[in-house]
Amino acid sequence: MEKKRPVGRPKGSTAKKAKAKAARIERQARAAAENAAGNKPASKTAQGDIIFALDIGTHSVVGVLAKKTGGICEIIDMYEQVHEMRCMSDGQIEDIAAVAEDIKKVKSVLEDRNSVLLSRACIAAAGRALKTVRASWEYRLEKDKLITNEVLKTTELDAVRRTCAEYTAKTQISENEPAAFYCVGHSVVSLTLDGFKVTKPEGHRGERLTTELIAAFMPSYVVESLCAAVDEAKLDVASITLEPIAAMNAVIPQELRLINLALCDIGAGTSDVAVSRDGSVVAYGMATTAGDEVTEAVMKELLVDFKTAEMIKTSGEDEITYTDVLLNEHKIKREKVLEITAEMTEELAKVIADEIITANITPPQAVFLVGGSSKLAGLAKLVSKELGIDETRVIVGRKELFRQIKAPEDMALDAEHTTPLGIAVSSGEGVSYDFTTITVNGKRLRALDTNRITVFELLPLAKIKPEQLMAGSGKSLTFTLSGEKITIRGKTSSPAEIIVNGISESLNSVVTKGDEITIIPAQKGEDATAKLSDYIDMNNAKSFTITAFGEKTRAGIFVFINGALKNADRFIHEGDNIEIQDLSTVSAVAKNLGIEEGEKLLLNGREADGSETLKSGDIITYAMPFTEVKAVSMSEDGAEAPGEKQDEKPEEKPQGTTVIVNGITSVFPLRADGKQPIFLDIATAFSDNPTELLSHANTITVNGKIARLDEVIYDGDVIVIE
Q1: Which parts of the chain have pLDDT scores under 70?
Q2: DSSP letter string over 467-513?
Q3: Which pTM does this prediction carry?
Q4: Closest to 427 in 3D by CA, of 47, 96, 135
Q5: Which of 338, 440, 553, 629 is the most exposed place for a label (fewest CB within 10 A)?
Q6: Torsion of CA 157, 162, 165, 169, to 10 degrees
Q7: Whole-number Å distance between alpha carbons of 49 and 343
Q8: 468 CB-near residues (< 8 Å, 6+ apart)
């Protein structure tokens, strides 16, 4: 009886793998024999024109060595290193060091087997967080000159550069932080020459060539993590592309792209879609549902670790032996495994179909499923059902589908090798699409090498906002001093500095690989500031008590800000109205009290001419009897303001001492001995328990100073008890 072949595995695939393994063992044995005989292997040569393609996948790292001869990509060697731990998720590197170690192993094996020193690698990014932009750009041609292939490359590169610049500008406006995205691939959708669509403009003449393209962008952290792992493995990134673009180049060459075809590269972490139509790749898409979700279904059902679940999922044996996490040994039939994975496989088929419809709007004419997870049993049939197309039009990738690729007979190639082979095929195809390394403020950045990278294009990658390069002068300060409007200008800003390789440059300066750039953001000018002491001698701006015409009053230099009396220095604020009242001389006090000019006055009993500077305790009197004047009034903040002259017919002076207590003018009688009242008398008049009143008060002042209980109170004193 013929042994039943496992469902979902191509007939003869096990035999091919066994044959390939035997061939490798034979080569290794031959090399060991040569070494044992004393024949040293040939010294390693430089990489030269050998292509080193690296497929850094969620499940493994695959390295391919190849050479291009004419239109054929000849595969020299291939090696796969499975990740020992789950260091990647959904195509995104989580443990850079672990992935770098696997890259080193692949590099070392291929170097030893082929006596070559590998220094650079071509890589591809998975479609996690993929963004696509479709754009058209017009390029002015030189009149009456033939369009050459070089002109086409120039216009295509210009279209890519302009699309990148536009996308970067849009993301900077829409995001709070400067967005950093890499353009990791593009496809020309159509070319229009002077308004007419053309497929091959070479040899034609025209004035306007319009390039319509679709460009794929990915966040910088996705690409940077890939490049960082390659860097750590001591390799330069020669070029980067998008995984579905690479897979498309391996399976669906240019001549087949007139047909509406969809390709889905189903790996362990992502399922990436590319669609062709009318001779071009017209759309890309991605989903983070892929083979790992099926593996995780096995993990949960059988209680095994990820590595064991992966073995069970991919095994071709009719009966599989495994050990669960509780160290129990089990055997499971292949049919049971298919039952466990069926639900998740159906879900994966639905996700793939939805992604294809999103990219293509309608079901395509045919679908190619590639990648390691494309070989899941029954997946192709389920995808055809979801799309509503004949199941014969959904095919799983295999060696016979790889076009323009030549490989050794003993090399087993299958659907899981589509991406690494596609990366090798894509190397050097189309316009130069390399990433160049430039250092900005000490950090190495990678930028798409469009042969015209400007400093401005590097700003988002360096996390520098454009507004950081533009700064204004500091704010002006405007205020009024004694009726005069004064404006102080803020200090001018310090302009941004852009230094390229030690030379001052501009934002539009073109930079190239290896350049070192220092960007010093602009510094806003300091706001204008001023203090009262900048315009007034605040040491002399103080008041004191004198006796003028029989009444206590305040004299000195008074500073009012917005109507409030200020005794201490402070910063001037925008819009302040500052008034200075100088009552420091005899004539100034007399004028303030309304005494007519020319009136003969005495200062401390001696005749005064008015220019004398007053001091505390001075007494001003008339040279002859005159009318009585009113005492000084007080400001709102408790400091005494200069007095004003009474009416010509003075009211009868109240018997007692007139004071202002908490804003209320009151007359307190003299003490029994005829002397002036003290502060305690005032407090007693306001409360039956003055001690309790004063103990709970936050402010206890006389004329703005802390009060003493025995302090003598005079007419016009301002008392605050709050």
Answers
A1: 1-42, 90-91, 127-128, 171-180, 428-436, 446-452, 457, 461, 466, 624-655, 663
A2: GGG---PPPPEEEEETTEEEEEPPPPPBPPEEEETTEE--TT-EE-T
A3: 0.59
A4: 47
A5: 338
A6: -160
A7: 47
A8: 496, 521, 522
